[in-house]
Design brief:
Layout (H helix, E strand, L loop, with lengths): L20 H8 L3 H10 L18 E3 L7 E2 L1 H7 L8 E4 L4 E3 L8 E3 L45 E6 L2 E8 L9 H4 L3 E3 L1 H14 L3 H12 L11 H19 L36 H7 L9 E9 L26 H10 L19 E7 L11 E3 L5 H11 L9 E5 L3 H4 L3 H7 L10 E5 L2 H4 L4 H7 L26 H21 L1 H29 L2 H17 L20 H14 L4 H4 L1 H25 L5 H28 L25 H9 L13 H4 L1 H6 L5 H35 L5 H34 L4 H6 L12 H4 L7 H4 L17 H54 L3 H37 L1
Parallel strand pairs: 5-7, 6-8, 9-12, 12-13
Antiparallel strand pairs: 1-2, 1-3, 3-4, 6-7, 9-10, 10-11
Length: 948
């Protein structure tokens, strides 16, 4: 509970509630005048106006000292020798006006603990002309007191977190002192302001220009433009400070060597890193560890990567690239520029034709790279710049670099990338063909696609690449790249340093929060195992033993073959060969027309009729949506309907114009046939009057327009138009359309049956019931749509004078036949199928053998997917427990590393180095102890709960 939060009184114990922020505001409103008067009272001095130190006449009030005390001139100087960056105001007889410590006579003495140097000599003219001073025009200078703006002798501009100060400085003149140019530059930045700027830049995305503008306003609210401009100096010094801190954090102040590739970057403490958090003896390997422990799964030491791009981190081309200074090129997360440029110059920009959907990369500059998929930590030396959007050559380099970071002995990696279905096909070939791409042949790469992106692919990509069906991945996190930010107006080296610093900070924050992250994952895994186990057990108990054995064997074959044949993962899809679809029949008709050299008006007639059938389906879908919307629609819903109608009308206009070609001179495009008559088979409770009113509001609504198909014109009129040959073509396509709709009906009815059995009936709470019924409603809407399409299709077939076989095959569809029964939901009820299932369950369906059924095939898929979900949660628990150990080992390894540095520093008599090493060692020791205690407590509680 928030320390200021209160619990409302006068309620029973069960009705107590914490007050909201609005409650606090209501309590504050009656008191706001009192607070306002207190604020104004602070503007005046105490009645006696005495200095709080010597009780003499007080002149200066310090705004930064606690309580804003009043000082005389002498006490103000003496009390601020160690606080020279406070702001003061001076009493002028009427009010306090802004002043500064320089006007109170404060002088800063360097060395000798703030006292004047005994050997002081005047050397204040040494730096004349070294730096450009701000030239202020006389008319710009204010005619009031305040901060010092004009440069004066022996003064220095010092930028602090509190603002920009110009103070008088006296340097040390002792023989062993530093040279005056080092002691007293024209401008200096305090460590406080540099740390504050870097933190503001990280947390708030504050640019150097905005930050310095804030400092100028803090210095003078009336005349900020007169405050010395040190924006460019801040940019330069911040780069130097950032580099020094990064070197210090990674121990290079304790080492004589210089950093190498990726050594100025933190990585994930919970990912397996042999020799760091995975302890392997000298001659042993990770494979030996797995073979010795029978309980260790083969995927125990798997590195998971997620690859992504960020097009917000764009930047401008440098004006003088040859004059840029790189402070940490390739030492952090961004790759080294020279080798990367050579790779890009040599690599072929291959654009392969996609066998999936269109995955278009934006033609924009940005960055891309690799992070660990389970924790979102960026991988050192694996971030690359884009030049012409996100291309394979960029991501190839990033992945190869990521696969080299602390991967010794790891032989399995899983990569997640938005377009892995295409990207991974020839990845190895591209690596082998390049001089600058390196990846060990022993490393097995398993491609995957994130759950958010995979739904934008073809349906087949889901089971082939979704994480739900990849052994050993557990449950992974999602996107990680969009959090990066970098301003555009900076040089390429500066931009790289900014990004490196941000990624280092991101990894550091994830590191110190890893205990909480893993504890949360552990709890989720416990709950996931329980829930997924119950769902799978319900399916498993009802399935025959011999089928479960067969399904398990097929699952193992699919998993073992997925690398060489991704289509093997289609085992998780419904594999029933259905009757010929409309597209298959259209293709056959087009091929037959081409074979017999049909006249031009008949070459594309099958496609024309098929387009008409598609328009009819769109009309029916829109009719159902309009009826469901009724008269209680919102403006957004009405706008969506209007857009759909406009799009549909354009399709109808194009179709009608084409009819002039195919129906010849006997057809008049201006004919006005009767409105479309569709039997809508849904179970909505909307008032039919609402539907009529909504439709009548639109003149010539496209969903009510009859399009000139042969079935709408009638057999006699087609003969009159000399288009009698179109009737068998439409009849064939109508058969395919009917096959499609019946196939979809069977799929959705089976899904509905499984939902009732595994979700609705098992829901124990109102929230679960609501969620389950929303799923059922969504499936039921799909059932209604396909049933309406079938009814319309059969009605049109009747107008085309069908044969007896077609009448017998495609029967009327009734409401009661769309209700699910025990035979659909229970696999043990197959023997009763002929008595309980409707006629459409056996229309030209190749079930692959006498022992199979629609029900069995659907049950197999649901069983496999439920098992996959349960297995992923079990893997998640195993991985989280391993990651808990690896995290503790990582912290202990870091603590030992810094402890060794502390001892070496003491031996070399470097007390500052030793103190810093000791502080770092203690930090990692505390992180290890805290994580170890939390993990043990969590696991012991889980064991006790399991025993109960």
């Amino acid at each position: 509970m928030h320390p200021g939060a209160k619990i409302s009184q006068g309620r029973s114990k069960g009705q107590q509630r914490i007050q909201s922020q609005n409650d606090y505001l209501r309590q504050w409103l009656p008191r706001q005048q009192s607070y306002l008067h207190h604020l104004l009272d602070r503007e005046a001095p105490p009645e006696d106006r005495r200095c709080i130190v010597c009780e003499q006449d007080g002149v200066y009030k310090c705004q930064d000292c606690l309580g804003e005390p009043l000082y005389c001139t002498g006490c103000c100087r003496s009390q601020h020798h160690h606080n020279p960056f406070h702001w003061i105001s001076q009493w002028n007889g009427q009010f306090f006006e802004q002043s500064c410590l320089a006007q109170a006579g404060l002088v800063i003495h360097l060395g000798h603990d703030g006292k004047q140097c005994p050997a002081l000599a005047d050397r204040w003219d040494l730096f004349e002309g070294d730096e450009h001073e701000d030239q202020l025009e006389p008319e710009d200078l204010p005619f009031v007191s305040g901060p010092e703006f004009q440069p004066k002798e022996n003064t220095m501009v010092i930028i602090d977190k509190s603002g920009v100060h110009r103070l008088e400085i006296r340097c040390c003149d002792c023989p062993n002192a530093l040279s005056p140019d080092i002691q007293m530059p024209k401008t200096a930045f305090t460590f406080r302001v540099l740390d504050d700027f870097l933190l503001d830049n990280l947390e708030c995305g504050t640019s150097a220009m905005n930050y310095y503008s804030k400092l100028r306003r803090m210095t003078s609210s009336m005349f900020p433009h007169l405050v010395p401009d040190r924006y460019r100096e801040l940019m330069r010094v911040a780069r130097q400070w950032r580099q020094l801190k990064t070197m210090k954090w990674h121990g290079f102040g304790h080492r004589s060597d210089i950093p190498s590739t990726g050594e100025l970057a933190l990585f994930c403490p919970a990912c397996p890193q042999p020799g760091i958090n995975v302890l392997v003896a000298g001659d042993e390997s990770l494979d030996d560890d797995l073979s010795d422990d029978k309980n260790s799964p083969s995927w125990k030491y798997t590195r998971s990567f997620v690859m992504d791009g960020n097009f917000k981190a764009e930047h401008l081309h440098p004006i003088k690239p040859f004059d840029e200074v790189w402070l940490s090129d390739g030492l952090g997360f961004m790759v080294g520029k020279d080798r990367y440029k050579m790779h890009l110059a040599e690599a072929a920009d291959m654009v392969e034709k996609s066998s999936c959907n269109n995955h278009r990369a934006l033609e924009s500059t940005g960055i891309g790279g690799v992070a660990c998929a389970r924790h979102g930590c960026f991988v050192p030396h694996s971030m690359v710049d884009f030049q012409k959007g996100e291309r394979q050559m960029n991501m190839d380099y990033a992945l190869c670099e990521a696969a080299r970071h602390n991967m010794e002995g790891i032989s399995r990696a899983i990569t997640f990338y938005d377009i892995n279905c295409q990207y991974n096909k020839h990845f190895r070939a591209r690596v082998d063909a390049s001089r600058f791409l390196e990846m060990t042949q022993d490393l097995t790469i398993i491609p995957g696609i994130g759950l958010w992106h995979v739904h934008g692919h073809q349906d087949s990509c889901y089971v082939r690449y979704a994480s739900n069906f990849i052994d050993g991945i557990g449950r992974i996190d999602g996107e990680i790249m969009e959090t990066l930010w970098a301003p555009r107006g900076m040089s390429s080296p500066h931009r790289q340093e900014c990004l490196d610093y941000q990624m280092n900070d991101s990894n550091f924050r994830k590191m110190i929060r890893m205990k909480r992250t893993l504890c949360r994952k552990y709890k989720l895994a416990m709950n996931g195992i329980t829930e997924s186990g119950k769902a799978f057990d319900r399916l498993d108990e009802a399935a025959p033993a011999h089928l479960k054995t067969e399904w398990s064997a097929r699952e193992r074959r699919a998993q073992s073959s997925r690398l060489n044949d991704p289509e093997a993962m289609d085992e998780y899809e419904i594999n029933i060969k259905k009757a010929p679809s409309r597209k298959e029949i259209e293709l056959r008709l087009l091929e037959e027309g081409s074979a017999r050299n049909a006249v031009p008006s008949r070459r594309s007639v099958a496609t024309w009729i098929s387009t008409g059938l598609a328009i009819e389906e769109a009309q029916i879908a829109l009719l159902i949506e309009v009826r469901r919307m009724g008269k209680r629609s919102t403006e957004t819903q009405r706008l969506d309907i209007a857009r759909q109608r406009d799009r549909l009308q354009g399709q109808i206009d194009g179709f009608t114009q084409s009819a002039l070609t195919h129906l010849r001179e006997g057809f008049d495009a201006d004919d006005d046939p009767d409105d479309l008559n569709v039997d809508i088979l849904d179970d909505l409770d909307d008032d039919p009057a609402d539907f009529s009113k909504t439709s009548d509001a639109w003149t010539n609504s496209p969903e009510l327009t009859v399009i000139p198909l042969p079935s709408n014109l009638g057999v006699d009129r087609c003969r009159h138009c000399m288009a009698e040959d179109l009737i068998p073509l439409e009849m064939s396509l109508r058969e395919g359309q009917a096959n499609d709709t019946l196939h979809n009906l069977r799929i959705h009815l089976c899904n509905k049956a499984v939902l009732f059995r595994t979700a609705v009936r098992q829901a124990k709470s109102q929230a679960l019931k609501t969620r389950a019924w929303s799923q059922v409603t969504s499936v039921q809407q799909a059932v209604s749509l396909h049933a309406s399409i079938y009814t319309k299709t059969r009605k049109q077939m009747m107008k085309l004078e069908p044969g007896q076989d077609q009448l017998q095959k495609f029967k009327p569809l009734l409401h009661e036949q769309l209700k699910i029964s025990t035979a659909v939901g229970d696999p043990n009820a197959r023997g009763q199928r002929n008595e309980s299932l409707a006629w459409f369950w056996s229309v030209e369906v190749d079930l692959g053998g006498p022992d199979q059924s629609w029900n069995e095939e659907f049950y197999r898929v649901h069983w496999l997917r439920a098992k996959a979900l349960r297995d992923r949660w079990k893997e998640e628990m195993t991985l989280v427990q391993l990651e808990m150990d690896w995290t503790c080992h990582y912290f202990s390894w870091r603590a030992t590393q810094w402890g060794d540095r502390m001892r070496e520093s003491l031996e070399k008599r470097l007390p500052g180095h030793a103190c810093y090493s000791g502080r770092q060692s203690q930090m990692y020791s505390l992180l290890a102890q805290d994580a170890q205690a939390a993990f043990q407590d969590l696991q012991s509680v889980s064991i006790e709960t399991g025993d109960e």
